[in-house]
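TL;DR need structure tokens for one chain.
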Amino acid sequence: MKIGDLVTRNSHNNDIVFTIIDIENNIYYLKGINVRLYADSEEDDLVSYDRKEDIEDEKTFQERLKEEHIDRNSEYFYLPGKILHIDGDNDYLNRCLNYYESLNIAAIGFSKKEDEIADEIYDLLEKYQPSILVITGHDAYYKKKGSYSDHDAYKNSDRFVEAVKEARRYESSHQKLIVIAGACQSNYEELIKAGANFASSPKRINIHALDPAIIASKMSLADINKEINLKEIIEHTKYGSDGIGGIITKGTMYMGYPR
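>> reply
TL;DR here they are.
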């Protein structure tokens, strides 16, 4: 096996597809293709992945994302909310930006290490003045280090919490700036307390690379005068309310006439 190969892990019932990103001292370092997850493994635990398989139900999920969001034949015109997306992973960032582009949503993205986001978020918000902010990347919950409420049990949750607090220092209103924060297994409760409108992960599960972008796009295309259907928006993500939760608010899209 070599760098770039697609593999799954026998020890985890071959449930997630990874690409090999590095090999050192017979340890294989892995990154999820669709799930925001880093892992490492010994070679004898790895199995080559056949692209013809679909163990993550990715085809079904991608079909769900192709739903039309705006009536293109309407006599009205639409101004979706602008998105600022800050991501700890450049590959996932580009995938999210391509998704926004496919929906004709104005979005700008930056790849920043998780421990850099809080230091730079205020200036980025001041410069780009988005309606929606996404703060994501990589995270993990280590059960052996403590309970869900133990800050030391998480890889990057505290860094995401700091970034959310900085965003709320810039704009305290949950309506004027919608914040979507967290990654795989993040400390959901603390992110919500810090001021996020949406956060991962209520059940401390892994989330899909596109899940934060799905929430952001739904909020971008939701009517600014109407409260969202919270459950419906969350159920559009890959793992639903196990992966992401949030609060009821209004959308960010203005409608105008004539087209």
